[in-house]
Amino acid sequence: MSLDQETFQLLKDSVQRFVRERLMPAEDDVEEHDEVPADIVDDMKELGLFGISIPEQYGGIGLSMAQECEVAYELGQTALAFRSVVGTNIGIGSQGILMDGTPGQKAEYLPRIASGDLLISFALTEPDAGSDAAALKTRAVADGSDYLITGSKRFITNAPRAGAFTLMARTGGPGAAGISAFIVPAGLPGLSLGRADKKMGQRGTKTCDVNLDQVRVPAANIIGGEAGKGFKTAMKVLDRGRLHVSALACGMAQRILHDSVAYAQQRKQFGQRIGDFQLVQAMLADSQAELLAGWSLVQAAAHRYDAKPFDSSDPEVSMQASCAKMFTTEMVGRVADRGVQIHGGAGYINEYKVERFYRDVRLLRLYEGTTQIQQLVIGKHLMRAA
Ligand code: COS
Fold first, then answer.
1. pLDDT class for 1, splitting at 50, 70, 90?
2. Which atom of ligand 1 is nearest to the CA of 377?
3. Which is deepest, 91, 302, 305, 311, by most CB within 10 Å?
4. In this structure, what are the phi and psi dihedrals at residue 192, rounded to the nearest 5 degrees?
C-alpha cells in the first residue's frame, strides 16, 4: 500500500503549509486553553489526516509506512497536541482492525475512522500493567453470545474524545495467550471515564482512565472473531506505532534545532551573535548530526516495514522499530536540552517555545514502550537470532 509519488508530494506540501500557516500560529492558544480548537480539528478532517494510514477502499489515503513517517515528521514540527488528535486514528486505535479485523469489522469501522467522524483509542495499559502488558487484568467473561468486560485502563490517549476503543482484555488464562482485542463502543452502559490527567507537558492532549463495570460487548466485536489473539495484535500495532513516534521525534528535533539556530542568530553577547561562538556551534552541530542519524534510521526501518506483508510480523522489523524509537526519542531529549542551553535563561521561561517543547518531548520516551522496553525487544531479538 502506498500513494503514487506525485500525489504524495502534493499531500506533503499541503501538510507542510497547514503546519506552518494554521498550526504553528495556534500553538500558544493550545498551550493556554489546553485544547485543540474545533475548527482546526475540522480542517484536519478536510485534509484527510485521520485516514492517512487507512487504504483507499475504506475511504483513507493509503500511505505506506515510509510515507506516513514523512507526514509524522511534518506534524512533529509543531505542538505535539495537534498530532495527538489524529494519532490514535492513524495508528494504535485503527491498525488492529486493519491488520486482524474481519471484513465486516473493517467495513463497519474503518471508513468512519478514516474520515475522523469516529475517534478510536487504544486501551492496553492498566494501573498494574504498563511495560508488562501481558499481565493485564481486565477480564472479559463469556455470557451467551456476549462478553461482560470489567477492569480499568490507564493513561488512555484521546479517551475523552473517543467514540470507540480497541481494548485488550483477558478472555483466557494468564499470559499473552489469554488476551483478546475487542472493539468497544464508548457509550455502552458500565463504561465510564476518569478525571483528565494533569500532565507535565503536551497541553491540549487528552488522556484519562477508562473504567469498565460489566460492560456488555458482543463476541462479534473481538477483532478477527477469534479469542486469544489480542496480545499479538497489540504488539503488531505497537511495532508500527513506534516507527510513527520515531518520525514525530525527528520532526520535533528539527523544530527545536530551527528555533535554536534562529535564537543563536539574533541573540548578542560579548558584542557578537552567540551563534558565532564555537561552543554554541558545537551544540547545534551535535543536534544536527544526531537528527540526521535518527531520521536515516527511521526511513530505513520504515522501508523495511513496507517490504513485509502488511498484517504479518517480522522480528527483524520489530527490532528495527525499537531501535528507531529508542534512538530518536532519546535524541530529541538531548536536542531539547541543548535547545534550552542555547537559549540560556530565556530557555527556562514559558514565553519561549523551547521551554514547552523540552517538557513535551519527555513523553516520547515513555509512551508506546519506554526506552527500556525497546532495549529488551532489541536484546531479546539479538539473543534469539544468535
Ligand atoms: N509482533 C507479533 N507478535 C509478537 C510481537 C510482535 N512485535 N512481540 C511479541 N509477540 C508474540 C510472541 O511471539 C509471543 O507469541 P508466542 O507465545 O506464540 O511465541 C507472544 O507475543 C508473547 O511474547 P513475549 O513472550 O515476548 O511477551 P512478553 O510478555 O515477554 O512481553 C514486551 C514483551 C515486553 C515486548 C511487551 O510486553 C511490550 O511491548 N511491553 C510494552 C507495552 C507498551 O508498549 N505499552 C505502551 C502502552 S500503549 S501506548
1. confident
2. 35
3. 302
4. -140, 160
> Given 2.60.40.1220, 1.10.540.10, 1.25.10.10, 3.40.50.720, which CATH number is that of 5-115?
1.10.540.10
Going from the Cα of 275 to the center of ligand 1, the distance in angstroms, rounded, reads 46
pTM (global) more than 0.85: yes
Q: What distance in angstroms lies between residue 134's CA and the mean position of ligand 1's atoms? A: 7
Q: Per the structure block, which three cell numbers stand in for 113?
A: 475512522
What fold characterizes domain 120-228? Butyryl-CoA Dehydrogenase, subunit A; domain 2 (2.40.110)
Tell me how far the alpha carbon of residue 326 lies from the centroid of ligand 1, in angstroms. Answer: 16
Residue 170's identity, in one-letter code, is: R
Count of residues in the chain: 386
Of 232, 243, 320, the one to substitute when testing ligand 1's pocket (max ligand atoms within 8 A of C-beta) is 232
Write out pLDDT tens, residues 332-379: 999 999 999 999 999 999 889 999 999 999 999 999 999 999 999 999
Q: Which amino acid does the sequence have at 67?
A: Q
Atom of ligand 1 at shortest distance to CA of 177?
Answer: 17
How does pLDDT run across 284-296, given as a tens digit for each residue? 999 999 999 999 9
